[in-house]
Design goal:
20% strand, 372 residues, 7-stranded antiparallel sheet, alpha+beta, binds zinc ion, 2 domains, globular
């Protein structure tokens, strides 16, 4: 039996009292984190070995402020593991000196798997009680490793990390996926993921709200209201994006055992690309799409990013030198094939992936779905 790690993030529907308790717990976890950083900094400056997560926890148990007892201690302990991890990373990589966590930024805390419980559409959080969830945990018979509870805008979420049995079935079908900016993705069998229409409207709204926020006086009540509005719109945009990506990647990976993509330098595109590419990368969230394909596909094949997937004719292999970004249709001068630009690229990516996999095109039979 093959086991895989999965997580499911679900919105919570806490009561008013639970919401207060969630805030309190996140606040205490943040306090404990900063308390741990402070302790480590002192030993760092003194030239001592930094205390481990376990040491910190022991010190905290005998030295914590009284008010910290208003929340469950088990929700606070993971803060020390985070401090420990932050210092270990810092010493290993010699960069990213750990710093204090600010109030109101990424409010969150973690609960170990054995300290919480999921019953139907409710999750038990220590010190908070059973909190309603908007949906049930997606996985059956899952072994839950941990819960992380966080706030975004004015909403609370639980992300449940679990280990589940891998039920994916190895299928011989291979598909190429061209990831892009105009169409978010196109597969070699013609499936297209377009940007959801709602997004353009929400982005306009976001711009308006950001302009309004920038005019508000610092520290004023109106400013915090405007800030919340911006955060809410960001959250909606993120949800719509993620939802569309999940639907697409699930469909693609369910019907194809192997997925071929270009090994894109997403960071480079975001930082050094021309403006239209930069914006497209940001808007479509290419890295999230690739991340989802990576964990959902049984096998993900990456082909060289410098391979001319757009400029090559998927029918005859002729390479066109003068193709520009604005040419949405590929017309081959050699065999006179006319094909959608992204579909052409996806077919080339598939062929390159198959070459890498040492499968001949004739072998699978279903490689070329078009009439050419
Ligand atoms: Zn051609």
């Amino acid at each position: 039996m093959n086991l895989v790690q999965r997580s499911h993030k679900i919105r919570l529907k806490p009561t008013k009292a639970q919401e207060i308790q969630l805030s309190k717990t996140a606040g205490t976890a943040r306090y404990a984190y900063n308390w741990g950083i402070d302790a480590c900094e002192r030993s760092y400056r003194a030239g001592d070995k930094h205390p481990s997560g376990y040491d910190l926890r022991k010190q905290w148990v005998s030295n914590h402020p009284e008010w910290a007892d208003e929340v469950a201690a088990s929700c606070v302990y993971s803060s020390f593991l985070h401090v420990d991890a932050a210092y270990k990373r810092f010493f290993r990589e010699r960069k990213g000196h750990p710093h204090f966590h600010k109030k109101g930024v990424h409010d969150s805390f973690n609960v170990a798997g054995d300290k919480g419980k999921v019953v139907g559409k409710r999750v038990r959080i220590p010190g908070v009680g059973y909190v309603k969830m908007t949906e049930e945990l997606r996985f059956e018979n899952a072994k839950i490793n941990s819960y992380s509870i966080s706030r975004r805008a004015d909403q609370w979420f639980v992300s449940i990390q679990c280990v589940v049995e891998d039920t994916r079935i190895e299928t011989p079908e291979v598909v190429g996926v061209d990831v892009g900016c105009k169409n978010w993705a196109v597969t070699s069998d013609g499936a297209v993921l377009k940007a959801p229409e709602k997004l353009a409207k929400l982005r306009k709204r976001l711009q308006r709200q950001q302009r309004s926020l920038s005019k508000k006086r610092k520290g004023s009540n109106n400013r915090s209201k405007a800030k919340l509005k911006v955060a809410k719109t960001y959250l909606r945009i993120d949800n719509i994006k993620k939802d569309a990506l999940h639907k697409f990647t699930t469909t693609v990976t369910k019907s194809h055992g192997t997925v071929v993509v270009e090994d894109l330098d997403v960071r480079g595109m975001r930082e050094r690309g021309v403006k239209s590419v930069r914006k497209g990368v940001q808007n479509s969230d290419i890295s999230e799409l690739l991340r989802q394909l990576e964990y959902k596909a049984i096998r993900l094949v990456k082909v060289d990013r410098y391979f001319p997937s757009s400029k090559t004719c998927s029918n005859c292999g002729n390479v066109k030198k003068d193709l520009t970004l604005s040419d949405r249709t590929y017309h081959c001068d050699s065999c006179h094939t006319t094909i959608d630009r992204d579909l052409n690229a996806a077919k080339n990516i598939l062929a390159e992936g198959l070459r890498k996999l040492n499968i001949t095109v004739g072998h699978t039979g279903s490689v070329c779905g078009c009439t050419c």
